[in-house]
Amino acid sequence: MRLNAKFDNMKSIKFTITKNFIILMGIIISIIIGVQRFIMGSMLRSSITKVISEGEKVVVAGVISKALNRTTMYIIVISIVIIIIGAIWIWKNFGRTARLLNGLRLHIEYLTNGVYHYKIKEKYFKREDEIGAICVALDKMQKSTIEMIKDLKSLTEDLNGQSGSLSNVSEELTCATGDISQAISNIAQGISGETMDIEVIIGRMSEFNKLLEDNIKDIDNLSGIANEVDKNANESNAELKELRKSMEDFNKLFQVFLGTIETMNTDIKKVDDITDLINNVAEQTNLLALNAAIEAARAGAAGLGFTVVASEIRKLAEKTKESSVSINHLIADVLNSSENLVSKTDEMSMELQNQKLGVDKSIVSFDVISNSIGDMNPKIKMLVKRANLISEDSNKIVMKIQNLSVVNEEICNSAEEITASAENTNTSSAEILKYSVSLKDNAGVTTNYINKFKLDGVAEEE
């Protein structure tokens, strides 16, 4: 597997050396140009000040030549000094890198020889160039190899133990094959006795299926009766609700009728008061007619006509009084009758209320019956379903028991084959024992190779 050893290319050795070289050359060129210009300017200025006329150009040229030669010498000397300094710096820089690479080479040689307890210093992991990435990758490889060797050692120890266990198992298998042969013989004898028991079980299961079918029919009949009861209860409940509604409507009309009677009693009492007033008026009229007759008698022949009128008025007043008395008696009889009617209507109202309560109780009872039947129907259906499932399962059981009888015969036939296989198993167990011994020897050889790796020791850093 390729390790993830990323690093910054901007900080690699190649980039660092190139950068340092460019910086060094730039410094050298800058120094050369700067020194040259400085020296030449100084020398030219000093030389020009000495030249006075045109005729002295040869002298000036010689002076400039000398100045350039002197400047070149200065530049050469300065460049040599700078190059020497740069060479020393590069030598020291690459010297440390060379020592680090040599240390990595030695560490790899240790790993090649199986020495894995030496560690790389932590400070090298902090480098951000190729060497730092190599150190990180090498450390990861070392740790991964140590883990694999430890796992391989553990697996080898397990393999060694399992090979011993396999040897023991093969020996036990040899003993077990003899026991298996004896057990198979006993099983064959037991199966022959179980065949008769299976026939008895089949007969009883058939009787059970018949009883179960009868129960299913009874449950179906019960479900039909329950549905009929539920239907009748719902119809009776609806009729009772209609009856209750009719009684409520009748009670409302009856209350209106009762109010009418009470109003009529009040009006009759007012009529009684009016008849009393009429009676008083009749008495006053009779009294006035009597006074008029007396005054007419005093008047003599002149008051004779008035006497006749007064007599008629008295007769009318007496008839009015008699009529008012008759009306009073009639009103008294009507009031008595209305009071009796009010009393009877109160009793009738109470009876209607009691009948309404009875109807309400009947409605509640029918609701309870309907709800109970509604709850019972799913249970009956579930019971029928389960009974059918039980019937199906019992039929399957009978078939399986019948198949078991056939299987018993096959088992008896297979017992002989198993006995032969047990002998072959005994032979195979001997071969397994031989291979387990060979496997144990190979595990020992693997252990010796693993022990050559030195995982424990002083963590001496490179």
Automatic annotation (TrEMBL):
Entry coiled-coil feature ranges: 226-253
Methyl-accepting transducer domain ranges (all copies): 169-426
Keywords assigned by UniProt, alphabetized: Coiled coil, Membrane, Transducer, Transmembrane, Transmembrane helix
A biological process from GO: signal transduction
TM region(s), chain numbering: 21-39, 73-91
Pfam families, per the entry: MCPsignal
GO CC, alphabetical: membrane
UniProt cross-references to PROSITE patterns, sorted A to Z: CHEMOTAXIS_TRANSDUC_2 (PS50111)
Record InterPro entries: MCPsignal_dom
Protein name: Methyl-accepting chemotaxis protein
Species in which this protein is naturally found: Clostridium gasigenes
